[in-house]
Write a structure and sequence with these properties.
Length: about 130
């Protein structure tokens, strides 16, 4: 795997950003707009997915990065549940649900695979690079 120098180069962050571009705007229109609790939860989840990937990358430690990726994966799973709530309340169509759910599910799998990769390699990260 090539060395990544900034979080924006990470495929999982790029996928999370793309998903955010599709989901976040939905929260500005009825009926999601008026369901304040769900709207805030969706915005929080989709933002946290991206932000935790970026934060973990910036910490410079393999284990802190894995921990942050774990939070991102959890937020992705939470977002999938929120999508079900949107579907069940007829806030979104079945077709839109299927499309967004598929993308969120793929993202969760990619984050999980990235975590597995990081757990398997002997990279310690910049924070511990020169420590004996």
């Amino acid at each position: 795997m090539a060395t990544i120098h900034q979080f924006e180069d990470l495929e999982v962050w790029q996928m999370a950003r793309e998903l955010s571009r599709e989901i976040y705007p939905l929260t500005f229109f009825e009926p999601i707009k008026s369901d304040y609790r769900l709207k805030d939860q969706i915005r929080g989840s989709i933002g946290s997915i991206m932000d935790n990937i970026a934060e973990g990358f910036g910490r410079g430690s393999q284990y802190e990065f894995i921990n942050s990726l774990s939070y991102s994966k959890g937020e992705t799973e939470e977002l999938k549940s929120q999508l079900y709530r949107c579907l069940d309340n007829n806030y979104i169509s079945k077709e839109l649900f299927d499309s967004l759910y598929l993308k969120a599910n793929l993202l969760a799998k990619k984050i999980g695979a990235f975590i597995a990769y990081l757990n398997a390699v002997k990279i310690r990260g910049q924070k511990f690079k020169n420590r004996v």
